[in-house]
Predict the 3D structure of the following.
Amino acid sequence: MAGMSSELLARLDLVDGLPGAGELREATYELLRCGPGDRVLDVGCGGGRAVAELCARGVRAVGADLDPRMLAAARTRGSAAPAEFVEADVLRLPFADGEFRGYRADKVLHELADPAAAVAEARRVLAPGGRIVLCGQDWDTIVLDSDSPALTRAIVHARADTIAGPRAARQYRTLLVDAGFTEVAVEVRTVVDTDGGFRPLLDGLAAAAREAGVATDAQLEAWLGEQSARAGAGRFFLAVPIFVASATVRPQ
C-alpha cells in the first residue's frame, strides 16, 4: 500500500505542478481568512497538498475524501504540523454543527449530482462568521486553439457530458446565496498553458468523444496529432477558466 500511495502522490504532484496551480491554491487560502489555531476542513482533499500547506501556516487542517487511496497518499505526504485525514462523504460529514472556521472544496462540486446538498452540509459544519471557498472549472468552457474548431467544440462538450455536474462552477454564487451565506463573491482565474503541460488532459477529452460517438478514431487521432504538432512548434494554447467563490456564514 505504501508503494501505491507514493506512486499516486507522484501523479498528483504532477497535476499540482501545472501552470498556475500553486498560485490558485494560495488564493483560496487567503480567501479563507483563517489563521493559526483555526480549524479548517478541506473536502475532496486528494493527495493532501492543501492540507499540508494550511498546516504549515499554523491552521488546524482536516482533510476529507471518499477514496482510501487518496487518503493513504495524503498521509504519506506528511507536513510540518499534525494533519488529520478522514474518510467521509461530502454530503454526510461526520462532524458537529459549527465545528469549523473554514471550509474549502477544490474541484469537488462538479463531481456531484446535487451540489446544493453539499453546500448545505458545508453551512452546517461552519461556525458563525466562518468562511467557505469553492474552486473549480466549468467543463463546458475549456478553450483550446485548433484547426478544427467545430470538432474541438464537440469533443469538449462530449467530455462535459460525462461529468455529474459539468456546469456547477457557474452556479457557485447561486448555490451560496440559496444556502444563506453572506458576503458572496466570485472571481475567475484563467489557467493558460502554452507549453503542452496539459496535453494529458486531451487524451481524456478524446476518449470521451470516442465513447460518445461524436468523432471517428481517425478524426481523433488527427486531432491529437495536430495538438502534439502545435506543442512541438510552440503553437499550443489551452486555457481553463477556474471559478473561485467565497462567502461567510452570517454572524449570530
Summary: The radius of gyration is 19 Å.
